[in-house]
Amino acid sequence: MADIKVGGWSETKDADKETQWICDQVRSLVQRKTNKIYQEYRAVKYRSQVVAGTNYLLKVCVGGPSYIHLLVYQALPCYEGQLRLSGVQENKTQDEPLYPFVN
């Protein structure tokens, strides 16, 4: 993650192994929140924000043309890097930009 701006959101980047791992860690929470079981669940894009930890906005392909956006907080390593699912937005598209949200 080059070009880190403390407090500001990064540009949108292609997902990598780290962001897929984050998505995998919160998958059961996402499925519970959306009341859906996803056969496909693949991180494709992300943005990050360095705060007292890191916020991640993640675009996840959940099958065909269907996407969801996740907001996940990762605590600092001194707090064991715990992950917290902060929000889920459904009915997103491949081309829809990642914008911060609250829900």
Overview of the structural elements:
- The protein starts with 12 loop residues before the first strand and ends in an 11-residue tail after the last strand.
- The longest helix is centred in the first third of the chain and has 18 residues, at 17-34.
- The mean pLDDT is 94.
- 17% of the residues lie in helices and 38% in strands.
- It is built from 1 helix and 5 strands, in the order E-H-E-E-E-E.
Defining traits:
Cystatin-B; alpha+beta; Nuclear Transport Factor 2, Chain: A; globular; 103 residues; Cystatin_dom
H-E order: EHEEEE
What's the helix count? 1
CATH class: Alpha Beta
CATH architectural arrangement? Roll
- What's the CATH topology name? Nuclear Transport Factor 2, Chain: A
The whole-number mean of residue pLDDT values reads 94
Low-confidence stretches: none
Radius of gyration from the CA trace?
Answer: 13 Å
| Number of DSSP E strands | 5
Distance between the termini: 26 Å
Estimate percent helicity: 10-25%
Shape descriptor reads globular
Largest sheet: 5 strands, antiparallel
- Beta-strand level of the residues, as a percent range? 35-45%
Number of domains: 1
Strand order of the largest sheet: 1-2-3-4-5
Q: In terms of structural class, how would the helical and strand content be classed?
A: alpha+beta
